[in-house]
Write a structure and sequence with these properties.
With 74 residues, the chain is α+β, with helices and mostly antiparallel strands. It is built from 2 helices and 2 strands, in the order E-H-E-H. The chain has a two-stranded parallel ribbon. Strand 1, helix 1 and strand 2 form a beta-alpha-beta unit.
């Protein structure tokens, strides 16, 4: 948000077989926003709006998605 003066950003990563718009992530962004902390929600490979088949998900692909989100923020 524009009022985030502390430059803090939390990358929210959903759990197994979930998605970035899960009820948990939505609740977390509300809590973080009240503390003036920005957040970025991502869908891991094969989940939600991300490309790929769920059956092809590997730990390496999940980590790569998280690293891409961090690099995007940098």
């Amino acid at each position: 948000p524009a009022n985030n003066k502390n430059n803090l950003v939390v990358v929210l990563v959903h759990g197994f077989n979930s998605k970035k718009n899960s009820n948990t992530n939505i609740a977390l962004i509300k809590i973080l926003s009240k503390q003036n902390i920005s957040s970025l929600r991502i869908d891991l490979f094969g989940h939600g709006e991300s490309e790929g088949k769920f059956e092809e998900l590997t730990l390496s692909k999940a980590i790569s998605g998280i690293e891409s989100a961090i690099n995007y923020l940098k």
